Amino acid sequence: MRRPHNPGSRAVTAALAAAVTIGAALPVSAAAAPAARNAAQVDQLPFTVDSSNQAGWWKPLDVVGGVTYVAYNAPGPTAATHEVHVAARGADGDWTDGCLRFADGSCATFADDNGHNQPSIVVDGAGHVHAFVSMHHEQWNYFRTTTPGDVTSLVDVSAQMPDQDLAITYPVTARGTDGDVYVMARAGADQRQARTGNLYRFDTSAGRWSRVAVVADAPAHSFYPDDLKVGTDGRVHVLWEWGPWPADPSRHLGSYAVYDPADGSFRDVTGSALATPITPSTPGAVIYQPYTAGEEIGSYWPALQTAKLAVHGDTLDGIAYRFRTEGVTAFDGYDVRYARWDGAAWQRETVLDLAGLGPGVETSAAIETTSAGATTRVYAVVETTSCVTGQQSAVVRAERVRGESTWRFGTVGEPRAGAQRLSAVTAPTGTDQLYVTVPSAGQLFHAALPRTGGTPDGTTAAQLVADLRGEATRINVARGADVTVSSTLRADTGGELAVDGSCTDASRWISALDDAQPVLTADWGTPTAVDTVRVRSGYSKATGTADVLRAFSVELHTADGWVPVGQVSGNTQGTVTLTFPAATADQVRLLVTDPSASATDVARVYEVEALAVDG
């Protein structure tokens, strides 16, 4: 694909003198400056989380009476195990932490199961903390405090739950306006080749659990709980998605209903009554994300994964969710969408469009949305891979005034190396409180993002991602250019990978073994003033520098033909920057004379960049 740019105005001399700067080796990671003023107050909690402390569906955060409660997996006593802890921060800012305990007084310990075995909590109207933990298609693991608000008094009361014969997964929680609490979970019905969605209620005054309903059930389908939120009128908003039985990372048919505890009814978004259990073919306005062309229940893609509700007062504001039209693995290619009911139909829009954000950008299975005051917010985790900052992730806030169409973007906290996961709740003041975990680093953060004093500064999604990638304002005209190469090692190491903006090992041009002097040419089509060429090469897993290009020269194609702009020999650096007097060119050519010092003597090139002159 050719990208047009305005041509430069400087003439080209017969020979250009090259000033060569040898850059640092390809970086692993670096912190990028936030794209917008960060109005959030972010604090790291004084606890170490286990590497298993990651999920997209959980409810690990609650805020009641000015006290913040967080649940997390802590490292267990042996490898591949974790304990479950709940911590509370009072008005004085001090944290109290306690592990969940079995009947013998020992800290409850479970086997790691990333993405499944995480805790969801909720505080009832009497101040008791309820914790549902570490269940992946197994019987209840349920703990409750013996003393209200005391996180050191959580004990195992699993036997008090209904449906002791069912296997439970993905519990999500909510507190009713009357102080009762709800939990929704997937329940095994494998003998029927189905897994159902069950809603349970704890009567705080009676101290007893009951099953409210089997919300949804369908043969050959599995129910995936996404979210529960209670409106100011006491109605429970219920969100889920469907997958094929028994389980699948790609899900479909994002669905929404409302449970009214006053009369025990379920209704769709229009208020029409729904018979339970709800199925994928139940009449009514239940499905906010229907099948798209070519999609079915067993499709790898298109697919849905992870969704959250924004309830404003007693009304649904919208649903934030991840959806992909295609992908390579089970977890990539997911845009962030937002669905709203306009009174007649579900309207869907894309908040974060990966195709428009360039290569090396993904969202992870972590999303949240809130609505209060005049603004709606969608929180997501954006992961970037770039030649400047390496691999990192950032919690991104998309915010807009209700009734408007434009989203403004900003980051919450600093970018981090490694994946992040999040959850959020809105306090009565309108301040969003966020739970952010970086499991690979053992870190847990708490953030507060107020809605007072006006909304925070914002930017576009494209600029935010550019900042995260560490991209300068200068344009790389070689990015996305048409490429020809003298050879390739394999079909998946083609020359186009050297101009895609990604510096991962899976995105390199690698020449053939019998090509002693490999050549790459990138043609961007429109003559443009260029004064810098950067060549990035090597192999990130190498312990030395044998895999970088050892010797090469660079030429630009101008109105006078091919003109040399730099020559390098004896190189041991991953990044080489060539600067020279500006030349108006439409192509760049890399001529390698010594591919590497490794036993497999091939050219390994992450990127060839040609930077346009500013202005």
UniProtKB/TrEMBL annotation:
Keywords: Signal. The keyword Signal applies. Gene3D superfamilies: Galactose-binding domain-like. Residues 1-30 form the signal peptide. The keyword Heme does not apply. It comes from the Bacteria. Residues 470-613 form the F5/8 type C domain. Pfam families: BNR_4, F5_F8_type_C_2. Coiled coil: none annotated. InterPro entries: FA58C (IPR000421), Galactose-bd-like_sf (IPR008979). This is BNR-4 repeat-containing protein.
